[in-house]
Write a structure and sequence with these properties.
Elements lengths: L1 H20 L4 H20 L3 H8 L7 H4 L14 H19 L2 H12 L4 H16 L4 H19 L4 H15 L7 H10 L3 H5 L2 H20 L24 H19 L1 H4 L3 H14 L5 H7 L2 H19 L2 H13 L3 H18 L2 H19 L3 H15 L8 H12 L6 H27 L1
Helix pairs in contact: 1-2, 1-17, 2-17, 5-15, 5-17, 6-8, 7-8, 7-9, 8-9, 8-22, 9-12, 9-22, 10-20, 12-23, 13-15, 17-20, 18-19, 18-20, 19-20, 19-21, 19-23, 20-21, 21-23
Length: 450
């Protein structure tokens, strides 16, 4: 067992270092490390074919409860979380269908027009829109389109887009923390522990809502002086929102499909439909309503992210099967000395600090078995630790340019448009904002749950 533990930890550390250094694409890193885990940890270390099969977890796909849950939701087995992968793939297909017809560009232009193209109202409106959209659509996609449109508007209205883009990134991460489907860490946490959309909405969603109000005020005053327009702008020459719509029939259908997805997600704990079922249904619905564009939509799906998740789950499975995560849980329990307040503070702040420098997705996946073990030994309820982990990983990742995928995408879009974002520029406002939100969440969890 000792050899297997050493191998599992070594592969995990190498994976993390390579992801941080960005020498290779991260999906290649996790896939290779996942395969090394199967061969060296389970094969040479444990000599256990069962551990390989448990980690690959193919059997879950043929279980009825994987698609429709009858009665109380059960926690997912260890290994590859196929529910997460299938759901994300389904939502990717839906989003590509919406992007094809110009939905996101139309929405941004419509809101800009509604506030008469005034920069400060656009600034506030786009922050709120970023948070709201990220509650239902992956924050990476939200920022990809929002940052692009923001830069386009900045060129038309003659203002510096960086303050707006950076604020949108933070609010997207904040909005993503509010629901189970808003941010990849929450999808992993929810599907692994059997929580529903409403469980997140009435717990992390309340915290996110309170913090969003404060963050809109914070960024408004922090960037107010940086958002002055340069010269006069002839509004009559600006493009009308309707010009963004590429396919009117497809546009209407995509909006209907999006609303169906929202309804199914909100009610999935009542209907028994799992997120895997919802993701599959929405993907099929998107494709059959755009038969001439099926190839185009499928081609644009981000398969690299799906491979990244698959490899990641295999590596974390190695840590779980060898008992490493139980050791980590025991260490946290020991240093907290049985103090529940200190234990929760450790979970939320360690999660936040770690997620600021390493990708929050693998960190969340790694910590799930840890908090499960702590819940069994410490007396602290699993939901309380779940909300602490969720907010820590989701919001902590906002502090630096590399902390979350949305940050990388947003700053990359800005850089390609001629507005490079350095660490100093990014962290100048993001770090104080992150500390404020983490402080609020810590106090809120102490008061409400302990």
């Amino acid at each position: 067992m000792l050899v297997a533990q050493i191998l599992a930890v070594s592969i995990f550390i190498v994976m993390f270092l390579l992801i941080i250094l960005e020498i290779f694409e991260r999906h290649i890193i996790t896939l290779i490390c996942g395969l090394l885990t199967l061969f060296f940890v389970f094969g040479l270390g444990l000599h256990s074919p069962d551990a390989v099969m448990n980690t690959l977890n193919f059997k879950s796909l043929i279980q009825p409860d994987f698609w429709i849950v009858r009665g109380a939701a059960e926690e997912s087995t260890s290994g590859i979380n196929w529910a997460t992968i299938i759901f994300i793939a389904g939502m990717m297909i839906m989003v590509e269908g919406m992007a094809r017809v110009g939905f996101f560009r139309w929405l941004c232009m419509k809101l800009a027009k509604a506030v008469k193209y005034k920069v400060l109202p656009i600034f506030v409106t786009f922050m709120i829109m970023s948070a709201v959209l990220a509650m239902f659509i992956d924050s990476i996609t939200v920022i990809l389109f929002l940052a692009t449109v923001t830069i386009e508007l900045s060129q038309l209205l003659k203002f510096n887009p960086l303050p707006m883009v950076l604020s949108e990134i933070f609010c997207a991460n904040l909005g993503g923390s509010a629901t189970m489907c808003g941010d990849p860490p929450n999808i992993i946490i929810g599907t692994s522990l059997g929580y529903s959309f409403s469980d997140f909405f009435f717990n992390t969603g309340v915290m996110a809502g309170i913090c969003l109000v404060l963050m809109v005020v914070f960024f408004f005053f922090a960037y107010k002086k940086d958002l002055k327009t340069r010269g006069e702008v002839d509004i009559s020459k600006l493009p009308i929102p309707e010009s963004a719509i590429k396919d009117k029939k497809g546009f209407v259908l995509s909006v209907i499909i999006f609303l169906i997805a929202v309804v199914l997600l909100v009610t999935h704990s009542e209907t028994g439909l799992t997120v895997a079922t919802i993701g599959t249904f929405i993907a099929v619905l998107t494709l059959i309503t755009a038969p001439r564009h099926i190839g185009e939509i499928i081609k644009k799906v981000d398969y690299k992210t799906l491979v990244f998740f698959t490899g990641l789950f295999m590596v974390v499975g190695g840590l779980e099967q060898t008992g490493i995560l139980e050791i980590v849980a025991g260490f946290i329990g020991k240093i907290s000395g049985g103090n529940v307040y200190l234990m929760i503070a450790i979970i939320i702040w360690v999660s936040a600090i770690a997620s600021a420098f390493i990708d929050n997705i693998p960190f969340a996946a790694t910590m799930i078995p840890v908090i499960q073990s702590l819940a069994q030994t410490s007396g602290v309820s699993l939901p309380t630790m779940t909300w602490a982990l969720s907010m820590g990983t989701d919001i902590g990742g906002s502090a630096t340019p590399i902390g979350a995928s949305a940050n990388v995408v947003g700053t990359s879009v800005a850089g390609k448009a001629g507005y490079p974002v350095g660490w100093r520029e990014y962290c100048r406002k993001a770090v104080p904002a992150t500390i404020i939100v983490m402080g609020i969440c810590t106090v809120y969890i102490f008061i409400r749950y302990l």
